[in-house]
Amino acid sequence: MDLHAWITQQVDHVERLIEENEFPPSQTEGVRLRCEADRRILARHRLDPNVTYEPACEGCGTYGDMEMSNVDNLNDCPELLDLAHAHGITDDILASLDRPQPPEPQPRDSRRLGLGDIHATRPITTSQVPAALRGPRWKP
Questions:
Q1: How big is the CA angle at 49 (ends 46 and 50), to the nearest 5 degrees?
Q2: Which of 8, 10, 69, 100 is the most exposed place for a label (fewest CB within 10 A)?
Q3: What is the DSSP string of 2-46?
């Protein structure tokens, strides 16, 4: 379970307490609104499906011409860390949480090769060069 899932679990628990009338009537509406606000933040600060090389936070945005992620790992998102603090996270709990993994890359059109596809192909060795293409200074 990563930080996003932990906070979601905490919000679910508070919403269950509201349904079970565990809060005084004067506080129920405020707690319900807080849960709604937390869910909005969780919806905005989630794993970015467009960044497949790191588990970046979509809500924290990007910078520069290359559009690098402002937050490289979802567990390091300052908004989520603030939410977790409000829900009572401790350093021990935070240390025990899983680091999220980047999303699987989407399959691409087979006609276009990307840099990852080019590097994934095996290099041609000199033993595979036909004799007709070998020059006078050929060294196998």
A1: 125
A2: 8
A3: -HHHHHHHHHHHHHHHHHTT-S-HHHHHHHHHHHHHHHHHHHHSS
Is residue 51 within 8 Å of 68, Cβ to Cβ?
Answer: no
Given a cut of 80, is residue 137 above it in pLDDT?
A: no
Single-letter amino acid code for the residue at 27? Q
pLDDT in tens, 78-111: 999 999 999 999 999 999 999 888 877 666 666 6
Which two structure tokens, joined as six digits, stand for 85?
A: 């603090």
Q: Identify the CA nearest to 46 among candidates 7, 87, 98.
A: 7
d(CA 80, CA 63): 20
pLDDT at res. 96: 95
